[in-house]
Design goal:
With about 200 residues, this protein is mostly helical. It is about 55% helix and about 5% strand. The protein folds into two domains: about 45 residues; about 130 residues, no CATH class. It contains six helices and two strands.
Length: about 200
């Protein structure tokens, strides 16, 4: 009888030991999962490691005009804006040149809002609002068909369109857009006809 009782006690102790081991293991597992969850909540979402933080086209424009993705930190946004300055510069120049080329060919088109812009390290799709896109393109088209002394109104239209874009993107206008796309020819005085060379129309290519 004593042997049977001792056997039951031994089995009971063994079951208790197995239960304790199981509970300790479960507690450790729950603790590990809890730590992982806390770390994932504390770590901000990863931002794609490219110069424009994974932004392109209309999403890039929206970010530059005050509607960035929630996951984009202010520091990253500021870096993207610095790089975007060059993208915007190239987009505007490309629109003007496209208008100029079409004007030389005697044709006209509706320029698209988007354009693929190449930088030193990558390429990115840029998007600009339709009214300003059309204005810059039209300035190039009409400039190719007018003598440079009749460009004043075109320069004014171009600079106003650029001002709107730069204001929206919160970028500094270092000089009027027309100053480098439609520069004013220098005034020449007291020279003979032989000394006057044929003026070069800017950005015809």
């Amino acid at each position: 009888m004593d042997a049977l009782v001792n056997a039951f006690i031994a089995i009971g102790l063994l079951l208790i030991l197995v239960l304790i081991i199981y509970l300790v293991d479960r507690v450790n597992t729950i603790e590990k999962e809890t730590r992982k969850m806390v770390q994932s909540m504390a770590t901000p979402p990863e931002v794609p490691q490219d110069p424009f933080a994974g932004l392109a086209g209309k999403r890039l424009w929206d970010a530059m005009t005050g509607k960035p993705p929630e996951a984009l930190s202010p520091e990253v946004l500021a870096e993207v804006r610095e790089r975007y300055d060059l993208v915007l510069h190239k987009h505007l120049e490309a629109l003007y040149k496209e208008g100029w080329r079409d004007g030389e060919r005697g044709m006209s088109a509706d320029p698209p809002n988007t354009r693929l812009i190449n930088t030193a390290t990558t390429e990115v799709e840029s998007w600009l609002p339709g009214p300003q896109v059309k204005t810059i393109y039209q300035c190039g088209l009409e400039a190719s068909q007018r003598p440079s002394e009749l460009w004043d109104s075109l320069r004014a239209d171009m600079d106003e369109a650029a001002r709107i874009i730069y204001d929206k993107t919160q970028l500094e206008v270092r000089q009027p857009l027309s100053a480098w796309l439609m520069p004013v020819a220098p005034v020449m005085s007291e020279v003979t006809p032989a000394e006057v060379s044929t003026p070069q129309v800017p950005l015809a290519g």
